[in-house]
Amino acid sequence: MKLARVVRQVVATQKPEAYRGVKTFMVKPLALDGREDKATFVAVDRVQAGVGDLVLIMQEGSSARHMFNNQQATMRTVIVGIVDHVEIER
Amino acid sequence: MIPGKVIGRLVASHATPAFKGVKFLLVQPMDENGADLGAAVVACDAIGANVSERVFMAQGREATILLPDTFNCADMTVIAIIDEVTP
User: Fold this and answer.
1) Mean pLDDT of all residues in A13-37
2) Which CATH architecture has domain B2-81?
3) Which one of B1, B27, B31 would you mutate to disrupt binding with A, by most A Cβ within 10 Å of its Cβ?
4) Residues on chain B touching A16 (C-beta within 8 angstroms)
5) B15 lies within 8 A of chain A by CB
6) pLDDT-derived band of residue A11, with 50, 70 and 90 as boundaries?
7) How many CB atoms lie within 10 A of CB A60?
């Protein structure tokens, strides 16, 4: 799983059936110093996240299919938590 | 899933039989502002996307699920057309 920032909401009408009724967002993984990675992913929301939130993302297709109880779900990146704070000691 | 822009089509008349009836698109991955991100990729089309449309793609095992033969060897498939991205 990765720490990421929600940066945009993505709206699509033509999309797979498994995506009905779920929100999709663009997320950018963060380095530990808080800088955003260059990579940008589209993620499905499971926790009522919003733009600007610091979140936990999971990137594993099999787990995503289990989570949505749908073996035909073409999903991999899922927002699975909203992060309150992070403590780094070193 | 990865956001991108469709920049072209690709035809491979001699491909693995599992790709029968599958269209290939050239897609340039993009960031949240629509700027290019890395190299363009070849992706299968599961939704009927056209050139210049913004889309998002499924990677890996998920790329095969929406194609006619789900035991094909695709690793990138366009699965949705983006209408709008919030500012």
Assistant:
1) 92
2) Beta Barrel (2.40)
3) B1
4) 46-47, 66, 79-80
5) no
6) very high
7) 16
